[in-house]
Each structure stands twice: as C-alpha cells, then as structure tokens.
Model the fold of this input.
Amino acid sequence: MNDLYLRSGIFLAPFHNHDENPTLSMERDLELLEHLDRLNYHEAWIGEHHSGGFELIACPEMFIAAAAQRTRHIRLGTGVVSLPYHNPFMLADRMVQLDHMTRGRAMFGVGPGALVHDALKIGIDPSDQHRMMEESFDVVVRLMRGETVSKKTDWFNITDAQLQLRPYTRPTMELAVAAARSPSGSVLAGKYGVGMLSIGGTAPAQMERHTANWGLYEETARANGYTPNRKDWRVVGFFHIAETREQARQNMRFGVQAFANYFRDVATFPIIPPDVTDPIEWLIETGTACIGTPDDAVAYVERLMKGSGGFGVLCELAQNWADWEQTKRHYELMARFVHPHFQQSRDLLRGSYDYAVGHRADFVGRASEAIQKAIDQHAARQGNKEAAE
Done:
C-alpha cells in the first residue's frame, strides 16, 4: 500500500499528571495544536473524560471551538464523544454548529465511553454502553442526513426531530466510530459507511486485532451498500523520537512512569503491565511503541502499513512522556523526516536533484560555453566601438 497517501494526526486524550497546574495543562494542549498546525499535521482528535484526574477535557466541542480560532488548517475531531452521556438530538445540533463555526474543519468521532466511573456517576450501567451507543448513533446519522426522526428508548425520547441547520460540510460532516478490543465499533462504522478509528496501540497482537476489525468493517459496509475506503481508517500509535535513540530514551524518563501508573491504577486496562520495571525498554521490545530516531519511526510505520494492508491516517497518541520542549521537538522531527516518506512529497525533489547530478558535466560545459560566448560578444562590441571612434 505504498501508493496510499498517509495523513498525519494526533489523538489528544489528553494525559496530564495531576501534580501540574491544570489550567496551564489545557493551555499547553491548545499551544500543541497551534504547533501541529504550523507543522502541517492534518488532524487532531480530542477526547471526553470526566473523572480519573489525568484526562482533563470534559467537552471536546468547547476545546475544538477555541482551537479553531487559533489554527488555520488542521482538522479537529471529537476523539471521542461518549454517546451514552448525551441526548443524541442535542449533541447532533451542537456538532452541526461546530461544523459551521470551523468552516468544515470539525469531525465527529463517537464511542461508548472508556471510563467506568464516568458512566457510574450518571447512573449508567457500563454493560449497557455499547447498546446505548448504537441507539444514539442511529439517530445522529439520520439527523445529520436531514431526516426527521422519532425514536424512543429507555433513556431518550426523540419526537419528530429535525435539525434546523444543515451541516456546513455537504452532504454531512465527517463521522468516525472508535474501535478497540471488541468488534462492535467496526460493525457500527461499517453499517453506516463512516470512518473507523482504531485505538488501543499498535503492538503486533493489537495490529492483528485492528486488521481483523477492518476486515469486519469492509464486510459490513458492503453488506449495507457502502464502498469501504482505507483512507477512512485511522490507527492510533505510540511514538517518541529524537535525534538519537539514547536521547529519545532519556527524554521519556520525564513522564512515562506517570503514564504507566494511570493505566495501571485508574483506566480499565493496563497498557504497561504492573510488574514491568523498565517501561521504556518494555515498550520498545514488545513493539508497543516506537522510541528512537526518525529512521526508526519510518521503519515502524512501514511495518504497520505492510501488516495491515494500509490505512489513511496515522494518529500519534499525545502522551507527555517527554517535557514540553522535547515533545515539540518530537513532532517537528516527525513532520520534517517521517511524514514526507509516506506522502511522496520529496520524490520529485530527489528526482530533480539526481537528474541534475547525472547531467552535471554537460550542464557545466554548456554554462561555460554560454559564459565564453557572452565574453566574446562583449569583446567584439568593444572592438567595434573602438574602431568606430
């Protein structure tokens, strides 16, 4: 799939250690999106969380509205809105407003909700969340497509509902469904012919699961009259790169342990097992993350592309493993040296350079002839002028 143009993005939960100033942490997230916008990242997905003390953004729509005012090009998605937490009519209406306010840069990513304690705090049984997501998404899609919808469930009652605004993006704003460990997300995305956002890591076993989910997506999409396209498949991976492998490892000592602790103590599944004594080496050895140089990142992404058959967007998990300056440097190195490899943006430059090198002797000879000709012509004119005098 080397001919597939690979777009670049991030998945911003965000993760911030609870020993920092939360106001400044959110400001830094906005600054990060400004930085990525300048670096030509294509998109960023912002999460919704309400507890746990580590993932700070409660309303991704509000964050996106602010970020859109501070950026010019980057597309901004909810990554993801937890559908069971919201009335689907009110949510769809807010997202259409956001689509207009961003002039079509907003994307609508959805999921069931990742944190059990978020659901329990508002009286939702976690075992009902996938069912509730499917009920809500059916309403959201139909509203976005301009339909008048009536639907009653045990948690919402939509009666003759129609959005008063069409989406700014026609026929509708871009939609995506998160798919992680279970196949439910890929089936739901395929049923409605929308994008799929594969989260949960890119270690070999995880990529096998993501690839299987994509196969299920393709099968479901075709069964429902849609043509699947790999450009609509986004994969979230773990990266930190620096000029050298040693520097990358050193940078990560800033925040990787807090990240490991959060997933061990609070989140519903540990990314790094609790008995791991060196999380950096474990992430590298298991293939869970790419920690190294730009060349290492190119090789890592090539493995992902080859093993999966190709996908449309590589989303890096924004994790604050390194301090702020080294984090920004990581994204700069990705943009300068990794993304162009998968976007064919340097190919013609290299071809033009190689052609010039291969014909240099001829070009130098012709340049010398042209210069000598100009000298001779000037001398001739001077001679004629002197003769006339």
